[in-house]
Design a protein that fits this description.
mainly alpha; globular
């Protein structure tokens, strides 16, 4: 997947915005934390938000972009269980909410491909 020169910054912006929302409005994220994870859901919400902010910084900087983009792809795969948990938990909610929850699942594929494309683009440049 070819990326434009602005693609890394767009990915960094998406990660930063998502990371900030984990701290500004953590309650919806808490509800997506799978119950099999140890500890408090809020802790996982804050940790994942901090990881997204760190990944955003890494992707934004050319020097760390390739490694951070690979880590971002892995992160997007890693949060899939939370998205599955959300879809399962929201299956009886109103149609719009249910559609949003189930719509997140296939969205992980283009996100992973985007991050991998950013990493490959940096490898060609660097």
């Amino acid at each position: 997947m070819a990326t434009s020169p602005r693609s890394p910054l767009a990915l960094a912006g998406l990660l930063a915005a998502a990371g900030v929302t984990h701290f500004v409005a953590p309650k919806p994220y808490d509800a997506t934390i799978p119950s099999f994870l140890p500890g408090s859901p809020r802790t996982w919400t804050y940790v994942s938000g901090a990881v997204e902010l760190a990944l955003a910084a890494g992707v934004a900087l050319p020097r760390t972009r390739r490694a951070a983009a690979h880590a971002t792809a892995a992160f997007f795969v890693g949060v899939l269980p939370a998205n599955v948990q959300m879809a399962v938990d929201w299956r009886h909610r109103p149609t719009a909410l249910k559609a949003a929850a189930f719509g997140r699942l296939p969205l992980q594929i283009p996100l992973v491909l985007w991050a991998r494309g950013v990493a490959r683009g940096q490898a060609r440049q660097g």
